Amino acid sequence: MGPVRLDVNGAPVRLTPLTARLLARLVAADGEAVTARRLYADVWQPTVELPHQDLRNRNEVQKRILELRRAFDRAGPGHGARIVRTDRLPTARGAESTYRLDLSDDELDSTEFTRLVGDALRAAPASAVRLLTDALRLWRGRPLTEVRDEEFARAPALRLTQLRETALRELIAGHTALGRYELALPVAEQTARERPDDPEAAAVLARLNARLRERHGDELLRHTLRGLRVDVVVVRGDLFDQEDANLVVGFSDTFDTSTDDIVISRESVQGQLVDRLFAGRHRLLDDHLRRGLRDVTPLATESVRAKPRGRRTRYPVGTAVPVPVGKRRVFALAYSRLGNDLRARSAPADLRRSLEHLWPSVALHGLFRPVAIPLIGAGLSRLVELDHTQLLTLIVETFTESLRQDPAVCPELRIVVRDEELQRTDLSAVEAFLRGADERRPALPPAGPG
């Protein structure tokens, strides 16, 4: 399809313009024999018929037929005569030479295209998508371009064009049936561009866009990291609604859990962790934390006099404790220091160090599940040096850096922001950072067989 092109043994063969038109004419005949007289009239298009011109005309046709056969002979001796057949047709003027193409399905792209689309129409969706994708790869433009305005080319060109429209429509339907709306969308967009006056094409595109919006829900940004097949996603919502993901919850260096609104606020992420995943039983969470901290050397232990409330044992900032909750993990991350005045304080260097320690722990204990993290540092840790955009970017930056050491940390980093946080966050800056990370990362090598 598209401009006439002849490939022999995988290499293109250059044809003269007249020979290319002759080949297009024979292709349009769809295997039927065409007389030399008809070939000359259709290909050369003489404007004046001179007397005794028939012999010269036949010689012109034969010269081009010979050129065509020699081109096919590059595949091996005898290929040209096998493919370009000569027969004799009895007429009132005597026997007349006729020519036809004898090509197998895989030797002519239009025949292979027709077969692939036909097979796809009888196949299940997954197989149909594969067959239709293979068929559409053969399409290089309007069929029989060199002779597109000729009467003999109109019917086959129209048939193939309509078959392509069917292939595009069925490819959209196949991707949709498989729930791959993001793959159906570019096909629907292409169809709508090519057929701007077709209301059905516009309606299909609108339905796909609606389905994608429904699927994304509160998803605000999604970026697949180049070369890794790892997604970084920003969603609007509640951390504890991310039921398919491991969670990250920020703690102070004392790992307090008592939600008495003095040491820990019930409204904080820590407080919600106790209430929503441990049914308010902070001692159960304490037991998990205590087991996770057994191999961590404390930094210091405060006296009762110095710190009358809350836990007194201090652990290094950056300590990450995986806490099992059903089939997933909650990573308790110490990123702030709880003063003896019960005020948590952190700094950009503390947060960076904590995140850099978090990702190896996720890789080791996270069971390769998505991991959801709040906009850590935006709450009661009073990390005032970084705005919300910088906090979000720091999370993404440390995550992408960790993938240089271990590309299998998790399949998806999901950053969950609340509405009030979103109003002060510039997601375009985060997206720009991710694009820059892609440019600095080498491309993914082609997948091997199997």
Write the layout of secondary structure elements.
Layout: E1 6-8, E2 11-13, H1 17-28, E3 34-35, H2 36-43, H3 54-72, H4 79-83, E4 84-91, E5 94-101, H5 109-121, H6 125-137, H7 151-177, H8 181-194, H9 199-216, E6 219-225, E7 230-236, E8 246-252, H10 269-277, H11 282-292, E9 300-301, E10 313-314, E11 320-325, E12 328-338, E13 344-345, H12 348-365, E14 371-374, H13 388-405, E15 412-417, H14 419-422, H15 427-440
Parallel strand pairs: 7-15, 8-12, 8-14, 14-15
Antiparallel strand pairs: 1-2, 3-5, 4-5, 6-7, 9-10, 11-12, 12-13
Task: Give a written overview of the molecule.
This protein is an alpha/beta fold. It folds into three domains: 6-103, Orthogonal Bundle (Arc Repressor Mutant, subunit A), CATH 1.10.10.10; 107-216, Alpha Horseshoe (Serine Threonine Protein Phosphatase 5, Tetratricopeptide repeat); 223-440, Leucine Aminopeptidase, subunit E, domain 1 (3-Layer(aba) Sandwich). It has helices spanning 17-28, 36-43, 54-72, 79-83, 109-121, 125-137, 151-177, 181-194, 199-216, 269-277, 282-292, 348-365, 388-405, 419-422, 427-440, and strands spanning 6-8, 11-13, 34-35, 84-91, 94-101, 219-225, 230-236, 246-252, 300-301, 313-314, 320-325, 328-338, 344-345, 371-374, 412-417. Helix 13 links the parallel strand 14 (371-374) and strand 15 (412-417). It starts with 5 loop residues before the first strand and ends in a 10-residue tail after the last helix.
